[in-house]
């Protein structure tokens, strides 16, 4: 019997066990309350990835009142970015600056781009070796009424996930990871 056959048999047995367990649960209408947990469910809970994360179900993601389309200006947008960043939890040693990168007119909206550059300057190194950037985009529609809010999105440098204010929790670790990766890359490259 080849190793592929052994793996196929093990996979088949595993799938059969899962199906049998699911059928038993459906037949008995087993609800896993705290006092009814079975040994198998406790074992699965112990080894699942969910148990490695610290959950704070009571945490409220903070947000601010963003600009409407008629109120929008580059200066007001910068002020709103400052106001929004104040809702984030991070150490006092972090400093940031906001740069306006430009505007992109499209058929039905205009997109305004900003860069928030983060660093941790110290007395020994007032000019940091690396920075981490967060890119904000304000989308001001040209077809919606002026009372509608401007859509705001932001993304962290090197990340693909696009955040919307008030929907995701800021993690200081993201900034630290970006800077750490840049420093490691600079150390690996010899000039």
Keywords:
2 domains; 34% helix; alpha+beta; 191 residues; A-kinase anchor protein 14-like; AKAP; extended; AKAP_28; protein kinase A regulatory subunit binding; four-stranded antiparallel beta sheet
Task: Write up this protein.
It is a single chain. This protein is of the alpha+beta class and 191 residues long. It has 2 domains: 3-52; 74-188. The protein contains 4 helices and 4 strands; from the N terminus they run αααββββα. A 4-stranded antiparallel β-sheet has the order 1-2-3-4. The model has no long low-confidence stretch (mean pLDDT 84). This is A-kinase anchor protein 14-like. InterPro entries: AKAP (IPR053084), AKAP_28 (IPR025663). One of its GO terms (cellular component) is cAMP-dependent protein kinase complex. One of its GO terms (molecular function) is protein kinase A regulatory subunit binding.
Topology of helices and strands:
Blueprint: H1 3-28, H2 39-47, H3 74-85, E1 95-105, E2 109-119, E3 132-141, E4 151-156, H4 172-188
Antiparallel strand pairs: 1-2, 2-3, 3-4
């Amino acid at each position: 019997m080849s190793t592929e056959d052994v793996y196929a048999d093990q996979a088949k047995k595993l799938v059969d066990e899962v199906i049998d367990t699911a059928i038993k649960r459906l037949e008995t209408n087993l609800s896993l309350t705290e006092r009814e947990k079975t040994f198998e469910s406790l074992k699965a809970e112990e080894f699942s990835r969910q148990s490695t994360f610290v959950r704070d179900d009571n945490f409220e993601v903070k947000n601010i009142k963003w600009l409407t389309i008629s109120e929008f200006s580059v200066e007001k947008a910068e002020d709103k970015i400052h106001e929004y960043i104040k809702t984030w939890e991070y150490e006092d040693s972090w400093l940031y600056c906001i740069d306006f990168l430009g505007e992109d007119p499209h058929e039905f909206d205009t997109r305004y781009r900003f860069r928030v550059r983060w660093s941790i300057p110290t007395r020994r190194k007032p000019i940091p070796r690396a920075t981490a950037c967060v890119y904000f985009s304000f989308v001001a529609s040209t077809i919606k009424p002026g009372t509608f809010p401007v859509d705001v999105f932001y993304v962290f440098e090197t990340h693909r996930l696009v955040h919307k204010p008030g929907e995701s929790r800021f993690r200081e670790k993201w900034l630290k990871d970006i800077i750490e990766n840049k420093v490691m890359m600079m150390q690996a490259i010899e000039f």
